[in-house]
Amino acid sequence: MIKLLGSVKHVAKSTVLNNRNGNSYSYSALFLSPSATGSSSLHRLNLSAKDVVASLRDWFKPPSNALLDRIFTILSSQDQAARDDASSRHAADLALSHLNIHLSEAFVLQVLSYGRRSSIDVLSCLKFFDWAGHQPGFHHTRATFHAIFKILSKAKLMPLMFEFLQDFMMHRCIHRVRFYETLVMGYALAGKPGMALQLFGRMRFQGIDLDSFAYHVLLNALVDERCFDAADMVAQQISMRGFEDDITCSILVKCWCKQNKLEEAEAYLRSLVESRKPVNGHAVSIVVNALCKGNRFKHAATLLEEFTELNVPLEHAYGIWLHNVVQLGRLNWSLDFINSKKLLNKDVPCLFRYNILALRLLREYRLNELYDLLIEMEKDGISPDKITMNVVLCFFCKAGMVDVAIELYNSRSELGLSLNSTAYSHLINNLCSSGVIDEAYHVLRNSIHEGYFPSKKIFTILADALCREGKLDKIKELVILSLEQKFRPCYAVYDMFIVALCKANRVEDAYLLHGELSRLNKYMLHETYFHLIHGFCKSNRGDIAATLLLEMQERDHKPNRKLFRDVICCLCDMQRPENQFFKLLEMQLSHFEPSSCIFNYFIAGAGHAKKPELAREVFEMMQRSGITPSQRSDILMLLSYLKSGRISDALNFFNDVRQRRRAGRKLYSSIVVGLCKADKVSYALNFMREMRNNNLLPSMECYELLIQSLCKKESYGLAVSLVNELEKTRGYITSFIGNVFILHSLKTEKLHAAWVQFVELQDETSDISLLGQVIGIFSGCIEANQDIENLEEIIAKCFPLDVYTYNILLRKITESKVDRAFELYDCICKKGYEPNRWTYDIIIHALLRKGRRDEAQRWLEEMFEKGFDLTEGTKLLI
């Protein structure tokens, strides 16, 4: 393994793309040749994915046994020839006889154990059992019967097991094993505890009793089948006969855990300590697993600490805890918790230490160090467990070697690899990223069969990919499969697929799934209704959207204003919009008590759809219904005129309102804002003056939009006077206004010229004067220290900086020195701001303009990872 994987390490180091900080990416390069991927580099080294996986086989798999391998090769060749062909069975019997096997109970148990551990065909194990039973001088024992029963039970081949037991009963005379004991164990393991108890009662009636081994098999089966009263009775019998041992302890603990009596289970373990009896580490692992299933990870870790200090062997228990943590996606929490408790400083199992370190390196994307750690484990002879194997698979995914990862996945049965949800998510995500959608679909199907539902994000990624390729039948298959498995999250899965279909503009299929949910008397989530209704609105199917809106309300989900507005706008775009509009209004009024809220929704919707006549009709209908229009109703009606460009109607309505009631600050602010958005700046200025004359303080939005509108028209003098007024009345200006000014100062010197005319009347120490200095610097009219910290400090004295401010600052800096943009980017992140699309676009645009394409490519990959896309102007430079 070490020699072969040395080449893999070289590939992982040299071919995985680095981002600007040297971290790894699995994205294909836009500016590099496609051959620079991990998989193609493996081919250049004459390594196939099979070679890499083969190198892991010796470490993952326990040592093989040539004789046992030969036995199962013979048995499997019979399967391939013909299962019921007498000649092939005779040939297999003859081949086994030629091996000169010395049959004994120990050897038969070894063969069956090897077959079960190696995931070999169950029927091969059964054939060997049958062959051994027919050999002269050998008779099956209770232990060998128990072994084959466990194999059949684990494979869930119950019909075959019942047939086996019936055959055993019919041939009682030829078996030398204890007859009733074997039947009790068989039916117990077959999931028929009632039948097992009947046979046990018949034994006791005849004066026959079970031995310790059979008692424990029966007790364990009763607990597994939740027959707790019967289990208590059998446990008493075990105690009376002095059969109690560490196995009894484990089964009793499992019994309490299955009844959710975790406190009793813990108390029992502590009582063993107090009475100086040995504590079984397996029993502790059962409690730990139950606590984890109940999302009580901290308590489980505390229990591990407690029994670690008592020198109880807990390697399995630590593995259980870590497996559950990873399975539920709580890895980050677990690593922080382990650090806070300094758990690794205590006497914890060696494998647990290695796994924790491996998971930390995987999380931090330190792939080379992770590789070195795995090699160290192999050198030191530390056998991997399920966590380690999953880390290895995730390593190949993150290193961009998805073909190796899928080969490892396909060999999971042979290697004993059982994937957890984290590994499934990494694998599915990488397969989707590589365009291997069908393979990702099959992996997801298998994960559902094995009881793992990947995260919502992974489900959405695959669903979107399947939708893009038109493979809706596969999506439906996944939904049906999840329902058949009767998993608790199956209805959430339905919602995930409906949302994914809606996002892929497949609303008809989503509606069919919704119908399936309704037939099952299960209803969609609030968010899912939103997606489905929006989907039909986008498809111009307002009639279905309106039906879903009403259904949503009947399910006690409250739609917001925007959803109502979107549905109404969609209805207004259909044929005969008036009929559709009033039909929905009638349905709302008939299902719910008429209120100003309902009428307001329709006034707002009609206004947004630029149907002011419909809005006016609803407004008058509200008055006829005896409901006095509220100030909110007046504002919505006013805005409906303004949005439609009916300025004269808006002004007339405003005057009508003033006749009915005193026009307040909100009404004035609404007309000022509406006029600004309608590009009627002169009207807006007049109403601002009217507000001040009436001793009403304009809202900050009035100032913001009016100043923005004036700057667009290059009426910088008026804009400056408004800023001065705002500084005097409020004492500050907002980030929005400050950003508008510095953005325009980047474009033209006219703003600074207007400022110069005004600034002489101002106090030089005021914020307004400082803003003029910033405008001068950004327009290039004032020479100043271009140091980032200096610019930040000056701007901060004028108004609070936000990410938009930093983006403008980024544009200013990249005009001269691109490298300083990286410094500013790091500064943005350190201050807690989240870089947005414009942040990345500005940097990439500047790099491309300077011909630094490799650097631009790395930033572009990071941008895509965040879900952003380039602006059209920057795309032209690629």
From TrEMBL:
Keywords: Repeat. Gene3D superfamilies: Tetratricopeptide repeat domain (1.25.40.10). It comes from the Eukaryota. PPR repeats lie at residues 176-210, 245-279, 385-419, 420-454, 525-559, 595-629, 664-698, 836-870. The keyword Repeat applies. Belongs to the PPR family. P subfamily. NCBIfam families: PPR. This is Pentatricopeptide repeat-containing protein.
